[in-house]
What does this fold into?
Amino acid sequence: MLRSAFFAAALSYLAGAALASPIAPTFTSFENLPGATFGGSGIPTDPTAITRFTASSGDNITLGLAATPRFDSEPLGNDGNGTYFAKAGSKTGGPSNLLGALWNFSFYIHSDGAGGGTLADLGLRIFYDFDPGIGTNILELGILGGPTPSVSVIEGSENLLFGFLNDDSLAPAVIPPLFDSFDPNAAGEYTFAIESTAEDQRVAINVVVSPVPLPAGLPLVLGGFAALGLLGRRRRRRS
It folds into this structure.
């Protein structure tokens, strides 16, 4: 569910992308993110992919992105380099009792206001992925983005099974991925990113989902996904 004023505002889609290519894990550090809560309590922030930069306004900006367990689900592993490991499956839980995958994507955006700018100046958008294939093209990802209210912090934790992420009627606030829908039982690789189009800055992660604990030979597992044809894409029709 939406947990910040960022999503309560009237959002507008920022069309297009700089490069029609997959997004690789991108960050300036991969570590604990002190001060972040991801909009909840008890959500782990270690490790978080973090990109820090100084905006043209002089504001110091922090973008943080992580994959986190949903409520009391099993903790996620990681490779120390921007890729998280999660198990397939779904469950209901929390005050809302909504059905969700066993893991969330969690985000944090902060400005220290040193230069007098606002987060609205950054041209922010959040990318998310329904396609279990490896290396989903950026143009096929879903997007949340648009004008941002005058706040210093935006953070939240969302689940790919939440219906609003696949609701065409919410456009331009939400642009669902081209892949039809998210299957929480599908093994594969999922991509997430936060981008500042105005500052050409990005933080990005991958989440590799497996029905069993991943063996040490991760490249062999990923190769197996490709061999099974998971690189194929189904595209929705848009009017």
Q: What stands out?
A: The mean pLDDT is 85. The longest strand covers residues 60-69. The radius of gyration is 17 Å. The CA atoms of residues 127 and 198 lie 16 Å apart.
